[in-house]
């Protein structure tokens, strides 16, 4: 192989033509790219800490949720890139060749490059040996100092306490996070090895590795705990303890949280197909119905307590499934957090006390301090977030004492009025859309690129959930529950039939037997016309109209988030029909007069069906009672038509009022299966007999049941039911 030697005396001439005009820019970038990267990683964690929890209370999807989504996705990627750059054995920031090498000061030598090379003039060392000597000198400060950054980056990979996962499905990907802990942990150890130097900074970097592994390992532990599908949190109280502590607690907010936790533990609403204990569920329904009845009798303020209980319960579910809340309330959690925090504080204090080796420290020194302070801040802020959550009350009741009493007092006076969800519900008026929408080229482009939902959302609005709406729903559910324990069950399957039967108006039955999306549109349009044809509007009329607009909002703007029925594909066709009618209506009175004209019952267009329904409602003196009850029934029906994961996912977007109705129905016993309990001995006998494959199954079955039911022969349906249960 040809050996190419370069004369040391010609080094200045060799480097004189290297500059191409971008050297200064390249030098600045190579010096600051890693610094900017690690600072951005720290900023990402701080942003996710504050706004990751805020997303459960805000509907500002673009300003909050989109930013959180992007930063969450980039946080792991940027951390991987930063560890990759740190794992290089050279200090990229100091290898840029300046214009004038005669003015270069080699860090740790106080000599210029020509002065250094003069010492090698009479030696036989090669260029690689010379630069290896210079590399050992240059490694003194910048690289060793940056070796402290790798454990901090590993610490940031553990994520903030307010946001462990972005979506619910990530809880099943714990293996991916475990592999990430293994690979990034090895890369961090490699960075420490290549930058190892027998001085205090390397020892601090090794000590800083402990909180990094603990933080990332805690994230894997939390996600792994949720992956089973029946996760119920890190803190568990038995029903007896809850009842005893609820009676002894004097703080109203703490008592409400304990009641919410008790309901959560019985219902487990986040678990699909969960079977509740029949005795516990019956007791819950009785207690909740009695509480609602008392709240209605006391007044409007107490009605809010029924929905506040639902808010607290949904908050417990969000903290349990999307954050690390609850980890510091376990023994291992307290131990690991104490070790992590102690190591971080010790490293920061020692960093100021240790003597720095010679070298350039201006930028890296300040950045290292910022990273250490930021890590300590995230640790303190994470602990505080857990101490002000509703879960801390459950912990205080499980481990009573002076500290627990102090926590309860703080929670009662400082936190009870905090916002737990967005408190808004969407509104969409079909007729207003027909008046305002103009099929411009821009809107067609938005619809083709972003979808119809995005286009329609521009014509919707958000309004605060009114007390009249809550009162209307509570009153109807309570009234129905008083008819019997099973009276509310049809609400999960009926969508207006009960109200039509109650008010004896079979002429409207056709309107609720249509496809659900079509039925919603017809009742919405009829309600809209009736509402605007009234001279005096009451709170109950306003509540019915709000529910009408809300159901249209869910149908047209949120069909993928809440798939309670098929998508309304005929929307634009109905728009074309209604647009012509709306254009001829100078006012609401003209609309009413036109709808009162004769109709053709064979015509199935939306305008004719709305006209048919409206004329029937106008003849009813109690039409608003009918409409109120129909809309509540449709709302309850819609909330029960899709898996609970859709409701749980919506918690990270500020929550949806439909989710509150879904959970409210569960407290009345709707939507939850009940365990089927059989005598244990009979079940065991049945199991043992069915395992014997040497005999015919029919003989074994008869033998098992004849032993315990000698006087009756079990029916086929009962046997099938028992077989499925066993």
Automatic annotation (TrEMBL):
UniProt keywords, alphabetically: Membrane, Transmembrane, Transmembrane helix
DUF4220 domain sequence ranges: 69-432
Transmembrane stretches, start-end: 62-83, 200-217, 329-353, 365-388
Signal peptide start and end residues: none
Highest rank taxon of the organism: Eukaryota
KW Phosphoprotein (keyword) present: no
One Pfam family it belongs to: DUF594
Keyword presence, Transmembrane helix: yes
InterPro entries membership: DUF4220, DUF594
Listed PANTHER family: OS01G0798800 PROTEIN-RELATED (PTHR31325)
Name of the molecule in the record: Ferrochelatase
């Amino acid at each position: 192989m040809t050996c190419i030697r370069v004369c040391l005396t010609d080094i200045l001439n060799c480097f004189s033509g290297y500059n191409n005009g971008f050297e200064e820019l390249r030098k600045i970038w190579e010096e600051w790219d890693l610094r900017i990267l690690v600072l951005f990683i720290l900023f990402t964690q701080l942003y996710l800490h504050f706004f990751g929890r805020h997303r459960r209370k805000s509907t500002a999807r673009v300003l909050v949720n989109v930013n959180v989504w992007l930063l969450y996705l980039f946080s792991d990627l940027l951390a991987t890139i930063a560890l990759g750059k740190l794992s290089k054995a050279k200090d990229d920031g100091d290898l840029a060749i300046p214009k004038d090498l005669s003015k270069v000061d080699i860090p740790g030598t106080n000599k210029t490059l020509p002065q250094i090379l003069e010492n090698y003039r009479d030696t036989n060392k090669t260029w690689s040996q010379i630069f290896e000597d210079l590399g050992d000198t240059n490694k003194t400060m910048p690289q060793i100092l940056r070796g402290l950054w790798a454990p901090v980056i590993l610490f940031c990979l553990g994520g903030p306490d307010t946001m462990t996962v972005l979506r619910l499905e990530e809880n099943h990907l714990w293996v991916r996070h475990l592999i990430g802990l293994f690979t990034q942990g090895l890369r961090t150890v490699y960075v420490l090895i290549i930058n190892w130097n027998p001085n205090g900074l390397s020892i601090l970097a090794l000590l800083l590795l402990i909180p990094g592994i603990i933080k990332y390992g805690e994230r894997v532990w939390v996600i792994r705990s949720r992956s089973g599908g029946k996760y119920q949190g890190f803190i568990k109280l038995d029903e007896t303890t809850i009842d005893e502590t609820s009676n002894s607690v004097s703080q109203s907010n703490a008592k409400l949280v304990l009641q919410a936790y008790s309901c959560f533990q019985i219902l487990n609403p986040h678990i699909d197909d969960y079977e509740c204990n029949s005795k516990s569920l019956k007791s819950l329904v009785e207690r909740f119905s009695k509480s609602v009845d008392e709240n209605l009798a006391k007044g409007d303020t107490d009605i809010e307590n029924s929905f506040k209980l639902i808010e607290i319960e949904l908050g417990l579910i969000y903290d349990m499934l999307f954050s690390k809340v609850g980890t510091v309330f376990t023994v291992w959690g307290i131990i690991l957090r104490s070790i992590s925090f102690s190591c971080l504080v010790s490293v920061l204090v020692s960093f100021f006390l240790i003597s720095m080796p010679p070298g350039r420290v201006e930028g890296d020194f300040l950045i290292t301090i910022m990273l250490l302070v930021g890590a300590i801040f995230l640790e303190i802020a994470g602990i505080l977030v857990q101490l002000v959550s509703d879960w801390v009350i459950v912990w205080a009741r499980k481990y009573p004492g002076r500290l627990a009493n102090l926590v309860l007092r703080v929670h009662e006076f400082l936190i009870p009025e905090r916002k737990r969800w967005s408190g808004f519900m969407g509104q969409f008026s079909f007729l207003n859309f027909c008046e305002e929408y103009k099929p411009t080229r821009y809107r067609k482009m938005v619809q083709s690129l972003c979808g119809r939902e995005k286009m329609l959302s521009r014509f919707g609005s958000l309004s605060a959930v009114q007390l009249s709406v809550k009162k209307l729903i509570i009153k109807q559910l309570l009234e129905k529950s008083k008819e019997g324990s099973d009276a509310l069950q049809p609400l999960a399957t009926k969508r207006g039939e009960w109200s039509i039967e109650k008010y004896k108006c079979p002429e409207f039955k056709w309107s609720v037997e249509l496809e659900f999306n079509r039925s919603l549109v017809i009742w919405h349009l009829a309600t809209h016309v009736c509402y605007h044809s009234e001279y005096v509007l009451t709170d109950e009329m306003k509540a019915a109209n709000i529910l009408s607009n809300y159901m249209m909002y869910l149908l047209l703007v949120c069909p993928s988030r809440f798939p309670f029925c098929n998508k309304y594909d005929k929307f634009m066709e109905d728009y074309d029909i209604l647009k012509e009618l709306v254009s001829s209506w100078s006012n609401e009175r003209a609309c009413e007069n036109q709808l009162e004209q004769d109709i053709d019952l064979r015509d199935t267009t939306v305008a004719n069906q709305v006209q048919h329904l409206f004329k029937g409602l106008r003849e009813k003196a109690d039409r608003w009672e009918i409409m109120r009850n129909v809309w509540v029934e449709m709302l309850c029906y819609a909330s029960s038509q899709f898996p609970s994961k859709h409701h749980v996912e919506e918690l990270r977007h500020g929550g949806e009022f439909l989710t509150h109705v879904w959970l409210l129905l569960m407290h009345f016993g709707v939507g939850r299966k009940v365990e089927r309990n059989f005598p244990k001995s009979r079940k065991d006998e049945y199991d043992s007999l069915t395992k014997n494959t040497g005999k015919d199954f029919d003989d074994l079955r008869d033998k098992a049941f004849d032993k315990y039911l000698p006087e009756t022969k079990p029916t086929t349906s009962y046997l099938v039911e028992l077989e499925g249960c066993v």
